[in-house]
Amino acid sequence: MVDAFAGYGVATVHEAQARTGVLAVSITPIYAGARIAGSAVTVSVPPADNWMIHVAVEQCHEGDVLVVAPTSPSDAGYFGELLATALQSRGVRGLVIDAGCRDVAELQHMGFPVWSKCVSPFGTVKETLGSVNVGVVCAGQWIEPGDVIVADDDGVVVVPRRKAADVLDACRVRDEKEAVSRKRYQAGELSLDVHGMREQLAASGLTYVDQPPDA
């Protein structure tokens, strides 16, 4: 079920679950072209301290996505090539972090995708405990362990685990509807007619005004 979400993309999933679940637009991919879906492993970390990310690696399994949320705003570079190597060896599909990451060129070369608030070389310490696999607020969205994380060039969306089956069904319906619309657009039809907008536009007061040729 989780794998199927990747085929639809963030925008479709967001629309299919009543336009909910999108993380803040500040969370963007560090390189273009990656598209993933996975089960959330969540990490709550202190500002500028990545100790608990190292703890979380042990809890990650194939198909997971690591989700990191600082307890206070931080632009530090919590994550880089070495942690990515450890996660990739365990089959982790990517990272979502409401903070900074670094080693962008190396991460792109090894094909490990990250969605972060910023790119930052600023280092972190390993001094304070946090929590792994607890509910966290990451970039404005509540995320629990096992929730479905979908991420692509458009950003990141979370699907609550208990709703995943229903949202996936809604994605299929929406995708099939869009496929029909796409064919009609390719045939030259206007969206105004495909979706029956003209009557409602007229009722809302839209008018067309002909201008003289020499206007």
Terminal CA distance reads 59 Å
Helicity range:
25-40%
> What is the element string, with H for helices and E for strands?
HHEEHEEHEHEEEEEEHHH
Q: Mean of residue pLDDT?
A: 97
Residue stretches low in confidence (pLDDT < 50, at least 5 long) are none
Taking all Cα atoms into account, the compactness measure Rg is 21 Å
**What is the tally of beta strands?**
11
Strand count, sense and closure of the main sheet?
9 strands, mixed
Shape, per Cα inertia axes: elongated
SSE blueprint and pairings:
Layout: H1 2-5, H2 9-16, E1 28-29, E2 36-45, H3 51-57, E3 64-70, E4 77-79, H4 81-89, E5 94-101, H5 104-110, E6 114-119, E7 131-132, E8 136-138, E9 141-143, E10 148-152, E11 155-159, H6 164-186, H7 191-194, H8 198-203
Parallel strand pairs: 2-3, 3-5, 4-5, 5-6
Antiparallel strand pairs: 1-6, 2-7, 2-10, 8-9, 10-11
List keywords for this structure.
about 220 residues, alpha/beta, nine-stranded mixed β-sheet
What this model shows, in words?
The structure is a single chain. By secondary structure, the protein is of the alpha/beta class. Helix content is 32%, strand content 25%. It is built from eight helices and eleven strands. It has helices at 2-5, 9-16, 51-57, 81-89, 104-110, 164-186, 191-194, 198-203; strands spanning 28-29, 36-45, 64-70, 77-79, 94-101, 114-119, 131-132, 136-138, 141-143, 148-152, 155-159. Strands 1, 2, 3, 4, 5, 6, 7, 10 and 11 form a nine-stranded mixed β-sheet that branches. The longest helix has 23 residues, at 164-186. The protein starts with a helix and ends in a 12-residue tail after the last helix. 40% of the residues are buried.
